[in-house]
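sorry for the late reply, my laptop died twice this morning and i had to redo everyting from scratch. anyway the thing you sent over, i finally got around to it. pasting the sequence first so we're on the same page, its 377 residues, then the predicted structure underneath. double check i copied it right bc i was rushing
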Amino acid sequence: MDLPHFLMLWLGGTTLAYLLQRAYHEFRWGAFNRANAHLERGCFEEALVAAEAASKRFPKDWRFHFTAAKACIEMQDPEEALAYFRKAEELVAETPIELLINRAIAKSMLLDYEGALGDINRALQSKQQRLWALLARSYIYLDEYNYQAALDDCNEALNLRATCEAYICRCGVYIGLNNLEAARADLQSLSEHLSKDARPSLVALSLHLQASLLSFDGLFVEAAEEQSKAIELAPQDPFHYINRAYFLSAARQLEEALSDLESANKLAKTKLAHSYIASNRARISIMRDDLDTALQLANEAVAIYERPGILCTRAAIFLLTGALKEAERDLERAQQLNPFDMEIYWWKGRLMEVLGREIEAEQNKEKALKGHYKPYF
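ok and here's the structure:
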């Protein structure tokens, strides 16, 4: 029997509406996938452009702002990432778990550890994405030198699932604890888990860890070579240039080190990066016997942010210029921040030598060398 004319029109209209809705959904999903595909390939600027364009076309979809924020994190621009996270959060009734986790990473990059842990602990109230929340928290603990808490979170994450990110984080924790044997074991496990299509930034981090382990053996040239491979994969990350500058300066390739620090300075958008750039420049100035410039740079670095290695830089300058009380003050502060940093004990030993306390000098220097510190200036 033929359908009534009005019913045919209604059914046809419904089908057309369905097809249009489906096409709209697939177009939006395609835009989302394209932005994230750029992100996975390490093309972060392209990912940001694609996400911004999609957010204008689909202004009520929070995910495009979220993707833009992740691209900004990868480009070491946490301030801009937080701006995108705010836009994303305005479009949802309840903050998504993945937004909380990634926002915590951006906050930690800005040294807002309290705010970062607040977001992570909110995320951990849910069972969703617990693995990634634990790993994000472990990175925050690692940055605060709370190695045991970081190790606990890494172990729990690995019990949930063995991922490259978990091995990278735990390897970093073991390096911080001077447990190089365990760090090398994790690096081996990491190499077995890394696939050929792994994210370039992930591979770059594994290369940096390998470079760090080489440096503990005094193989600074080889470490710089590994770090160069990391730079090829993640050229937008200033810390890869900062790390290579450290290895190059330890290998006495000072001009090349300064060139890397200049590159890092052009990319740096965080206080932490700028503080390490100034500190490394100060060390190069020490090696050139320009202690006035070295002290100026070290003061600049400490004023930006106190870190044990940065305080050791200034303590070394104070020691070399005879400001022994100031050197002792900086070394005590560095030890309070991270008693596992072996460079502290090397300079404490040097200080004890100047003070004529030979036994303490030998004890501190021996501790530093046993902890794999390789003095280079």
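The mean pLDDT is 92.
thats about all i looked at so far, will dig more tmrw
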